[in-house]
Predict the structure.
Amino acid sequence: MRNKKFDWLNLAISAILVFVIITLVLTYRGEHRWMGHAVVSIVGLITLGVMTITGMRMVGRLGASGTGLLRLHHKIGILFTILMVGTFLYGLWVVLGEAVPVHFNSPHAWLGVAVTIFALAQLIPSVVLKRTNTIRHFHRVIGYLLAALIIAQVIIGVYMVLTE
């Protein structure tokens, strides 16, 4: 039998997903459901940072490009998209559980829609297309826009919690 190298990346991704699931299970009831939404959002923000750094290294903007970065970037991108779609859906569920549910009445909610759409716009072409040279510029612009939107999203979300 051949010696297989242990895949730390898959283990880390699995651990992150288990952590997120446990967090959501522990916070799905009561008035503190927003905490689960916030925790998943913070994990998504960290994932965005790792994905941005690997993307910048791949093109040589942040040090020399290394081997295996494309695989890392793809896997982190898939995890990021799962987290963003999940965060949006969980946030929507949190709002539905309020005494008087008000949908999409804040910039935070609309930025959540935009983040979800842009995260899917980043992932789908990268997974579906064999040759990504045609979308490279689009991918880079959407990626930086997504980073800015998420930072704005976190700031607005924290402001909303602090001013309640």
